[in-house]
Amino acid sequence: MPSIAEALEKFNHLTEALREELARFLCPFAAVLPDARHRQALQRLAPALLASRKPHLSAAGARGAAVSISAWALSKRFSTLLHTPRFSHHAWLNVLYAQAVDQVAALPAGRRLIVAVDPLNLEKAYARKIEGICQVHKSTPPGSPPKRPRRRKEEGRITWGYPSIFAVGLNTARPALLHQRLFSYVSDDFVSQPWEWIQTMRYLRQRLPGRRLCLVADAEADDQKLWQEAQANDLELLARATKVRNVEIWDSRRRRWRAQELQNWARSRQGRAHFVKAFTHAGRTVPVRVHLNWARLRLPADSFEAWAVTAQTEVIGRERPPDQWLPPPHLVVVVIGRPVRGAQEAWRVYQDWAQRGQIELLYRFLQEDGLDIEKILLHKLERFRRLLLIIVMLAFFIFHLEHWWSPVLIQWLRSLESSIAGKGMDRRGHYLLLRGVQRALDARALLEWIKIRPPPIGYLPHGL
Question: Whole-model pTM?
Fold first, then answer.
């Protein structure tokens, strides 16, 4: 067994390599900063935030202190990085977009890119005087039951916070952030929420002009304006339809259009094709049986044509898990820009839309037991956006680290937080890796702090 000094030397070597890996990852983001002190502050802030796993500058300053600078002075430097008017958060966004475009370019030229477009409301429940703070709709976090029984029609709650929208590539090697915007309902640059979706579609087409793009979205995209915008930008859109909408369904037997209410038509039709699919989440695999139907539809007002795929989903052999993302039992997907003429095409539509659940994993990693973006304590909207992007950078660094480093090193980092790392019950999630990286960097920061300021043992009580 090595001595403590030898083990500490190996530990210092590993944490130094971890810091260098993070510094290389941050180089493109630091390069767009206008000042060398800002670049140095970013390189120090990122590992300090990982060591504390809190978006608080004071906690980060305590874990990034060095011989030449105190924790308080370092926190002030971090604050200057977020407060300076010499650059905008768009500079970091452009770097994230460029990296995402490079990931998409690695895909085969003819492959369809699946992009999940989804809103994310960040809760600041006790904030009232923060710039741009507004009321948003917040659902109860998955897996945590409400404190009191809710009425049947009550779905979530209204609270204070910031709305945002994300567009994330799902079938790339790693999640690719293709668009992100944090906005406010009360700011001057806000037009409407559908306008944010329209702008997202236009930006996606501009960044990937030659790629087949398939946008998968939930009920927020059940809007005729968004359907027409997707068609105008040559985008495929798979959106869950929940509204009561009168449409015309093509009757293939009688060769004519028939007026129908979309949801009633979907419930009245039996599935023409039957498939079995398994959903895996949180270490559990849930098999489901899917009954599919499909039809061509158009809107009576402007003769806008699309396709509809209906799916009746039932869990095989068990009850429906309440804390796992699964498509709803009755699903209606409106398909824009993509013909659905048979069972195999309808099945591919269902499989593509079912990938939308992967963005829920990213959201949970950002705002729940992962990096806690909802605990940001800043009063200005631009500063909030900058710190949010730094946290997004750290999340993508954790995703990349698992692919860059050897599985032996990743397992060792994960074992710092859990005894099940490397065992059969280990689910190889990103949470344990994040916490292992946190413990390693926090321990290194503690050793450096003790070296700078040794414990004053001379003041211990007599006899100890």
Answer: 0.90
